[in-house]
Amino acid sequence: MKTVLRLGKDREEVGVVADQLGSPTSALDIADGIFAVAKSLLERLQERALRGVFHMAGSGFASWAESASEIFILSARCGGPSTRRRPITTTDYPTSAKRPPNSRLDGMKLETIHEVKLPSRQASLGFCVERLVAEMRESGIS
User: Fold this and answer.
1) What is the pLDDT of residue 114?
2) CB of 87 within 8 A of CB of 18?
3) Over the stretch 106-130, which tens digit does the pLDDT of each residue have?
4) Which of 100, 12, 116, 34 is nearest to 64 (CA)?
5) 2-138 has CATH 3.40.50.720 classification
6) pLDDT digits over 83-104, tens only?
C-alpha cells in the first residue's frame, strides 16, 4: 500500500499488473487471527485436528491492479494521493522474482477447525488507507 500511495503522489499514471490474483490481507487482521488461533489451541490442546497447515487471509481476492484502484479511490476520499491506473500484464513488468498468476488463499479450513475468519480485504482496506494517508501527512510526504 505504501508503494502504491507513493507512486500515486509521484506519477501522473502508474502501470499495475492485472493478471496476477492474490488475497491481500491486513497485518492487523493477521495478528488478531494468530491470537484467536492461539486461544483455540490452548482451549482444545489435545485435539490433533487443530494442527497442520492453514491459510490465513481475508476473504475475497483481487489483482494487483484492482487493489491499486481501490487504494487510490479510498486515498482520494480522505485527501491522499491518487493517480490514473493503467492495467498491464506480468510480461510488461518484468522482475527478477517469479510471481505466480494465482496466489489466492482459502481460509475455510481455518474457519472450520479454529472458528477463525478474518475480515474481507475490503472491510480492512479503508482503515489501512486512512491510517497511511494520515501518516504521510504527519511526516510531510503527502
Assistant:
1) 95
2) yes
3) 999 999 999 999 999 999 999 999 9
4) 100
5) yes
6) 999 999 999 988 888 889 999 9
Closest-CA residue to 11 (of 83, 90, 101) = 83
The residue count of the chain comes to: 142
Q: Give me the residue label for grid cell 478474518.
A: 118
pLDDT for 18-68, tens place per residue? 999 999 999 999 999 999 999 999 999 888 888 999 999 998 899 999 999
Q: Is 117 left (phi over 0), alpha (psi -120 to 50) or beta?
A: beta
Backbone angles phi, psi at 130, to 5 degrees: -55, -45
Q: How many helices (H) and strands (E) does the chain have?
A: 5, 5
pTM of the predicted model, to two decimals? Answer: 0.86
Q: Report the greatest alpha carbon distance in the chain.
A: 57
- Cα of first residue to Cα of last residue in the chain, in angstroms, is 14
Q: Where are the beta strands (DSSP E) in 42-132?
A: 62-63, 84-88, 102-103
Domain ranges of the chain: 2-138
Angstrom distance (rounded) from CA 8 to CA 80: 9
